[in-house]
Amino acid sequence: MTSTMAPPSFPAALLSLGLPGLGEVYAGRPRAAAVTFALFYVFSALSIAAVFARFSGISAVIVPLSIVLAAWVVVVTRAVRAASHAPEPYQLQPYNRWYWYASAVIINLFIWQPAMVSVMRSNVVQAFRIPSGAMEPTVLAGDFIFASKRPSARNVSRNDIVIVESLGDDKLLVVKRAVGMPGDTLSMRDGALIRNGAPTGEPFIQNTDSAGARGQDLGDGRSWQLAHLVHGAPSTYHPDMRNWGPIIVPPDSVFLLGDNRDESFDSRFYGAVGGDRVRGKPLTIYFSIGAGSIRWGRIGRRF
Question: Average model confidence (pLDDT) for the chain?
Fold first, then answer.
């Protein structure tokens, strides 16, 4: 076993940035390294909990971010402290080899962290950027949102905004509003949604291209609607974006519309979507940019 001078603080801090606690391993304190590793994930859990908490405004972003930054401050501080308190001369241990450090960092960055992120994205929370204006004015193109992926977020009620897996092979996740539940009778007249025989009164929608939407063919949506049409002759049924139905939402399905009714590709075109395709619900807007400028007033807005 060879000895050397006490390990310097900078490499200890750098190693812990690659893997929380590795700086303390470098300084000969593996037990402290385990504590640091655990602390880091406690802080991470707290930051995720803060995303779900009912913070409003800029606090909804600052609080989770502050917890993450605090976690890294703790990790680096503990590594520097361990290195500065290491005995001198320092007895090298079998794990004090560069190739063990490199292996640990590589495993963390390319195996452990991706696996953890995948689990979080699938079951807890996921970040999205909204690319289109199909949900305006509720959700704008250029909004960045956190969405809950917890099992409870897959329970849908009327008018919930939901994250849904698209029907195509690309498996895209889209944001829509669930306007119809299984057994609901839906129709639209001049852009006004009628549910179970009563006008819905939707203050959250907008219609931007009335003339074009009124005449736009629904493509395969017509065939789907014919199969679920309450009454009417197929030969005379010619639905468009603003006039269709009445149709009945089939079992175990939800009927989706975008709030920007004249600019949304939704269930009018591809039919109701199975409830098993619902992946979650939006939580909050953590950043928003449009026309080259940050929309500060939207940051922290909750759904």
Answer: 91
